[in-house]
Amino acid sequence: MTPYPYQIEGAKFLAARKRGGLLDGCRVGKTIQGVVACDLIGARSVLVVCPGLARSVWANTFDSASLMGLPRATVWDVKDPIEPNGVTIISMDNARNLAIRDRIMHHRWDVMIVDEQHFLKTPTSKRTQMVLSRDGFASVAGRIWFLTATPVMKDPSDLFTMLVTVGAFKGTHEDFLNRYCNWYMGDHGPVVTGAKNVEELQRLMAPHFLRRTWEDVKHQVTDKPVPAPIWEEIDIVPKEGDYDPSDLRDIGFLENEKKVKRIIENFLAGDAKPLPRNSDAARVRLAHALVKAKPLAGYITERLAKWEWDKVVIFFHHFQPSELLMHYLLPFKPRRINGKTPDAKRDQHIREFTDKPAKRVLLVQDNIARQAIDLSAANRLVFFELDWIDDNNHQAAMRIQGPRQTRQPYIYVSRLIGSMDEIIARAAARRARMSAQILDSNKPLKLPSMF
Q1: Residue 448 in this model has a pLDDT that exceeds 60
Q2: Residues 213 and 236 reside in one and the same domain
Q3: Residues 207 and 241 placed together within one structural domain of the fold
C-alpha cells in the first residue's frame, strides 16, 4: 500500500509533534497516515486504541503499509496477548477491561494512537479515564496522536479532552465551558446552548491539528473522482396488509401527544438530541419504522431483482423493524451488523459484502458502524431510519464514498407519507446535506454550523 502525497504530508505533520492529531474528513485515509508517521519516527512499540470494527483495518494497514516489519497483536478477547515490542491494537471497550489495562500499563509505548477520538470526549467516562487520564494509558505513552473526522459532535465542549491532552488548554472542564461555551448545569450535567470566543478556540487548535477533506484531496487519488452523492427520497405509502394495525394506531395516538409535538418542534428548530429509549417520541419513531418495513423491502427487492442495484447498504436504528426487513429481503440472504454482533462476525460480514458479488444486502445499525468502515462496494445506501443528530447521518452517508468508490453514489431516505416521519426525514436529510457541505469545505479546521 503506497500513501498518496497528501497522506505523506499528514504523516509528517504527526511525526513532528509529540501530541497532536489529524482531523481529516471521512474517506481521506487517516489510518495509513498514522502508520507512516510511526515509521517516520522509528517507533518500535505502538498502541492503537480504536472502535472495535476498526481493529482489522489497523491490522491490515500496518501489515501492508509499514516498512518496519514489527510484530503485531490484535486484541479481541481478554485472553489475547499484547505485543509490547511491536504493535498492539485494542478497542475502546478493551480499554475498560482491568486485565487488559494492567498489561498495557506495564510497558512504555513510543506512540499511542487514539482513533475516532470523539468516543473519548466525556472527561468523566470510564474509558476516557482509562485512556487519557494521568493514571491511564497516556501516562505510559511517549507520543499521543488523535485521529477523528468529527472532533465536534455536538458543541465545543467535545474538544476539551483532546485539547487538554495535547497541552493546548491548561484549565478545568468548567474553565473550558466558561471560556468557549454558553452553558448551564442541567439535571444530568452541563447543557451547552452555544459557542463563544470561536476564533480564539480555532487559533488554539491550529498548531496541533491538521484537517483536509475528501474534496480537497480526491484529485490526488484519481483523475476521475466521482461526483458528490445524489440524495433521493423513497416515499412510503403503506397498503392494508403491509403493517400491524396497532402500529398505525400508535402513530396516530402518539403524534398527537403534547410532549411528542414539542420534541418534534425542537428538532425542526435545530435542537436535535438523542431520544430517551422509552419516551413517547422514541415509540412513535419505532412505530414509523415498523409500518415502513414491508413496503420499503418491496421497493428494494424490485431494484435488486432487476439488477438496477447490484448491492445496497441499509442503515437502521431499531432492532425489531430490522428483523422485518431481514425477513422480507430473505431471498437475497441479507447480513446484519448490530450491537450484539461479535466483532469477528462484523468483520466477516463486511469482508464478504466487499469481496463476494453474491452478497448483495448488508443491514447496519447506525450507532455502531458510522465510522472506520468502508462499504463502497455498494454505491447505494438507504436510510431506513435517520438519526436525529445531523453529523451522524453525514458520517453514515460517507461509508459508500471515498477513494475506492468508482460509481456515482446514491443516498436514499425512506419516509412515511402523511406522518411526522415525513417531516423529520425531510429536515434531517436537508441538514445532513448541509453538514456535508460544512464539514467538507476547503477551509481547514472548519467547525460545525453552531459556530
Answers
A1: no
A2: no
A3: no
- pTM value > 0.85: no
User: Do 179 and 257 belong to one domain?
Assistant: no
How much is the mean pLDDT over the chain?
A: 86
For residue 82, the cross-strand partners are: none
Q: Are 33 and 3 in contact (CB under 8 A)?
A: yes
**Closest CA relative to residue 161, chosen from 196, 105, 114:** 114
At residue 48's C-alpha, the angle toward residues 42 and 50, to 5°, is: 150
**What is the domain extent for residue 338?**
230-439
CB 111 within 8 A of CB 38: yes
User: What's the pLDDT score for residue 208?
Assistant: 96
Is there a domain that residue 100 lies in?
yes
| Inter-CA distances, 245 with 249, 252, 414, 420, 444, Å | 6, 11, 20, 18, 51
**C-alpha distances out from residue 41 to 11, 81, 414, 427, Å:** 10, 25, 48, 47
Number of other residues whose CB lies within 10 A of the CB of residue 358: 7
Q: What is the pLDDT of residues 359-388, one digit of tens each?
A: 999 999 987 766 668 899 999 999 999 887
Q: How far apart are CA 257 and CA 280, in angstroms?
A: 8
Domain boundary among 191, 218, 245: 218
Closest C-alpha among 432, 439, 451, 435 to residue 213: 439
Among 189, 218, 247, the domain boundary falls at 218
Neighbour-count burial for 395-420, b at 16+ CB within 10 Å, e otherwise: bbbbbbbbbebeeebbbbbbbbeebb
Asked if residues 214 and 441 have their Cβ atoms less than 8 Å apart, the reply is no
How many domains does the chain contain in total?
A: 2
Amino acid at 151: P
- Distant-in-sequence, close-in-space partners of 307: CB < 8 Å, separation ≥ 6: none
Task: Provide the 8-state DSSP code for 227.
Answer: P
| Cβ atoms < 10 Å from Cβ of 288 | 28
The answer to the question of residue 444 being in a domain is: no
Q: What is the DSSP string of 166-222?
A: TTS--S-HHHHHHHHEEEEEETTEEEEEEE-SHHHHHHHHTTTEE---HHHHHHHH-
CATH of residue 398's domain is 3.40.50.300
Asked if residue 397 lies in contact with residue 374, where contact means CB atoms within 8 angstroms, the answer is no
- Separate counts of helices (H) and strands (E) for the chain: 16, 15
One domain, residues 257 and 131: no
What's the pLDDT tens digit per position in 95-145?
Answer: 999 999 999 999 999 999 999 888 898 899 999 999 999 999 999 999 999
**Same-domain status, 288 and 185:** no
- Asked whether residue 108 falls in the same domain as residue 67, the answer is yes
**Does residue 403 contact residue 29 with C-beta atoms inside 8 Å?**
yes
